[in-house]
Amino acid sequence: MNNRLRVLRAERNWSQGDLAERLDVSRQSVNAIETGRYDPSLPLAFKIAELFDLAIEQVFTSPSKETPQ
Amino acid sequence: MSCHPRTRAFRRYNIRVIWLSLGYAAAILFATYAFRHHLLSGAIVYLIAVLPALPIIGMFVAMGRYITEETDEYQRLLLTRQMLWATGFALSVATVWGFLQAYDLIERVDGYWVVVLWYFGLGLGSVANAVIERRAA
Question: Span of the secretion signal (chain A) (predicted)?
Answer without folding.
Answer: none
